[in-house]
């Protein structure tokens, strides 16, 4: 941190936070704790309430009810300019009439800091923009503007830094670069970062904790790997990466749940199952599935779940090969296979057997429907572009 | 053929520029004329009389000063009021907002002759004495429309996130206005004020109806035209043109210096 001052890092707690716009609940009884110094990602489709949540934390939107705590301080009633929180806006919102130096110095000056030069120079060095201090924002590239926006927020040493889709306007390559850059800055300054995004890959790459949001509620929260490997709702299974979901009925329960679906038997460790009733949806991620020629079924380890089908599509993507396999009951199963196997790949029309370990299977409650999380980005409830 | 094609646009541009600037050139040229008769219409001989004795004709300078004064005062009031109206219209939702929006346009859309004569009827009905005050009231009225339109456009074009960013960066509402909103709207306000001043200075029809015995510069010229316009009028008009030119050029110069200083650093 500029000046090298050690300071207290605070956590962010949202308690029963609700925001109602007219008849719609944009944010519905949200309770989250983002630990001090963590990189927290709020992931969801547009209209899920993630930006509204962020704006409430910033103080730009008043909650209908609920509370916001930073450390032990209740900031719910504080106005935006009184909160120890700074935001990196989606469109950066750099002041066009001020140069980069003055943009970055803005927060310090408003708080009456007399000598801002050293701090501004130090933070501009952190984001590698010292040479451009006297340029106007319009003379900078998108990536540079983005770094100015980060510097302008970070120089104030906020307890929590909010990032509202900060990389949305950048092209893919720059985005990857900035993801690494932001992660570096975060580990350097140690501040609690709350990052809002609709890009699941971005959330998983950057965050320590991912919260998947849907219709104003948190669907699931945890370490990215944990949420990906063991989704707890159909929405999360579909929204975060891809999943193959098959509807079935429980046959027996115990340490291992046995499921019958379309005349086949499947096994799931019961701790990986959340379906409460008889009816269940079993799921598996595409990269967990082994694709074998039907004659080679014996190579499949005993106890693996298996499905028989016909290859209807093969796409070679370099790193992996993606198969679409049609099952006898007409469902298409996606499977990714790393291109590290020696020998022939399966080809179009081949009869194949798909196998995967029970430990890679998850059981979900079918109540929300198999398509939950697939056709997102339709609702535009949230004021994403308009304030 | 090819030569024509390559130079056609340039040629047309020169013709258009001539068309625009020839009248001004004539006005300036005839300010150096020593007219034979009362009418300054044909070239006689070169003379600096009109410039050295610019107030040499009775009434011309006082009319000029009157117009400048009325222009400045009207612009000042209209700019302040118009800016406030624009903020109210853009920032607040109130009853009658859309009808206000529409009514603000009325003075711009109404023919000046109608506005001038109805204002006169109003002042006479109220037995309000005609003079500088009535002229200023009339001017403020129509300048406001232009200010509101210009400032509104500027405000609407402003990203609302800029003000949110200011609030997020510890700026109180008054500091947000002072350091972000106002500087961003200022070019619109200044532009509107310049336009307003020139509209007021230039106005003849509305002023003529409501001036009573007051003589503004346009009214003076109209009166003089009956008897022959003295070259002093040309000299004063040239001064106005030069002043406008200086304003435009200095604005360009400031912009150019800014760009230059940026590329050096």
TrEMBL record, chain A:
SMART domains, sorted: AAA
Domain called ABC transporter: residue spans: 12-240
PANTHER family in alphabetical order: SPERMIDINE/PUTRESCINE IMPORT ATP-BINDING PROTEIN POTA, SPERMIDINE_PUTRESCINE IMPORT ATP-BINDING PROTEIN POTA
A single GO molecular function term of this UniProt record: ATP binding
Name of the featured protein: Unannotated protein
Stored Gene3D superfamilies: 2.40.50.100, P-loop containing nucleotide triphosphate hydrolases (3.40.50.300)
One GO CC term, this protein: ATP-binding cassette (ABC) transporter complex
Keyword tags: ATP-binding, Cell membrane, Membrane, Nucleotide-binding, Translocase, Transport
Pfam families (UniProt xref): ABC_tran (PF00005), TOBE_2 (PF08402)
Taxonomic classification: unclassified sequences, metagenomes, ecological metagenomes
From TrEMBL, chain B:
Keyword Transmembrane helix belongs to the record: yes
Record's subcellular location: Cell membrane
Family statement: Belongs to the binding-protein-dependent transport system permease family. CysTW subfamily.
First and last residue of the signal peptide: none
Transmembrane intervals: 7-32, 70-90, 102-124, 136-155, 176-198, 204-223, 235-256
UniProt-listed InterPro entries: Bact_Polyamine_Transport (IPR051789), MetI-like (IPR000515), MetI-like_sf (IPR035906)
Example of a GO biological process term: transmembrane transport
Main location: membrane
Keywords recorded for this protein, A-Z: Cell membrane, Membrane, Transmembrane, Transmembrane helix, Transport
Keyword Cytoplasm: no
GO cellular component: plasma membrane
Domain ABC transmembrane type-1: 64-251
Lipid bilayer topology: Multi-pass membrane protein
This protein's name: Unannotated protein
Pfam families tied to this protein: BPD_transp_1 (PF00528)
């Amino acid at each position: 941190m500029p000046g090298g001052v050690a300071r207290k890092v605070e956590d962010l707690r949202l308690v029963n936070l609700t925001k109602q716009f007219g008849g719609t609940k944009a944010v519905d009884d949200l309770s989250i704790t983002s630990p001090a110094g963590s990189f927290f990602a709020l992931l969801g489709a547009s209209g899920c309430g993630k930006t509204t949540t962020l704006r409430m934390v910033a103080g730009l939107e008043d909650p209908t009810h609920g509370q916001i705590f930073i450390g032990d301080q209740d900031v719910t009633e504080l106005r935006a300019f009184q909160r120890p929180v700074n935001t990196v806006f989606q469109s950066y919102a750099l002041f066009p009439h001020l140069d980069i130096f003055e943009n970055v110095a803005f927060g310090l000056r408003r708080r009456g800091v007399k000598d801002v030069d050293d701090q501004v120079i130090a933070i501009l060095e952190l984001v590698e923009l010292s040479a451009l201090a006297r340029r106007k924002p319009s003379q900078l590239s998108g990536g540079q503007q983005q770094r100015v926006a980060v510097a302008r927020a970070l120089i104030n040493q906020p307890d929590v830094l909010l990032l509202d889709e900060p990389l949305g306007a950048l092209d893919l390559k720059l985005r990857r670069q900035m993801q690494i850059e932001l992660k570096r800055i975060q580990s350097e300054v140690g501040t609690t970062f709350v990052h809002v995004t609709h890009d699941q890959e971005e959330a998983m790459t950057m965050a320590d904790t991912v919260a998947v949001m849907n219709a104003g509620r948190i669907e699931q929260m945890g370490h990215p790997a944990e949420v990906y490997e063991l989704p707890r709702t159909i929405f999360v299974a579909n929204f975060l990466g891809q999943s193959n979901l098959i509807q079935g009925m429980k046959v027996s329960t115990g340490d291992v749940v046995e499921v019958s679906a379309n005349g086949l038997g499947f096994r799931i460790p019961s701790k990986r199952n959340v379906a409460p009733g008889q009816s269940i949806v079993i799921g598996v991620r595409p990269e967990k599935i082994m694709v074998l020629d039907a004659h080679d079924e014996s190579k499949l380890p005993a106890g693996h779940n298996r499905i028989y089908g016909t290859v209807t599509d093969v796409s070679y993507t370099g790193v992996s090969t993606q198969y679409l396999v049609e099952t006898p009951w007409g469902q298409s199963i996606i499977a990714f296979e790393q291109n590290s196997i020696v020998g022939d790949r399966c080809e179009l029309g081949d009869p194949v057997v798909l196998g995967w370990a029970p430990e890679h299977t998850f059981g979900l409650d079918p109540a929300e429907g198999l398509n939950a999380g697939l056709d997102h980005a339709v609702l535009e409830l949230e004021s994403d572009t308009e304030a | 053929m090819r030569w024509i094609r390559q130079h056609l646009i340039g040629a047309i541009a020169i013709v258009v520029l001539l068309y625009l600037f020839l009248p001004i050139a004539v006005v300036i040229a005839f300010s150096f004329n020593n007219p034979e008769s009362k009418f300054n219409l044909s070239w006689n001989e070169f003379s600096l009389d009109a410039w050295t004795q610019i107030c040499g004709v009775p009434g011309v300078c006082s009319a000029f000063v009157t117009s400048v004064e009325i222009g400045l005062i009207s612009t000042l009031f209209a700019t302040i009021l118009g800016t406030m109206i624009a903020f109210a219209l853009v920032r607040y939702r109130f009853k009658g907002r859309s009808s206000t929006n529409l009514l603000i346009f009325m003075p711009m859309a109404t023919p000046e002759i109608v506005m001038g004569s109805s204002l006169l009827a109003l002042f006479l009905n109220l037995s309000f004495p005609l003079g500088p005050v009535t002229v200023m009231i009339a001017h403020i009225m129509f300048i406001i429309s232009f200010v509101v339109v210009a400032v509104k456009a500027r405000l609407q074009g402003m990203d609302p996130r800029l003000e949110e960013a200011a609030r997020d960066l510890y700026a109180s509402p008054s500091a947000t206005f002072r350091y972000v909103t106002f500087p961003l709207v200022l070019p619109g306000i200044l532009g509107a004020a310049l336009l307003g001043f020139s509209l007021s200075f230039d106005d003849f029809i509305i002023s003529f109806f409501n001036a009573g015995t007051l003589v503004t510069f346009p009214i003076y010229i109209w009166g003089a035209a009956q008897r022959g316009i003295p070259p002093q009028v040309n000299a004063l008009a040239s001064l106005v043109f030069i002043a406008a030119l200086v304003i435009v050029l200095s604005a360009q110069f400031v912009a150019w210096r800014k760009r230059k200083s940026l590329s050096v650093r």
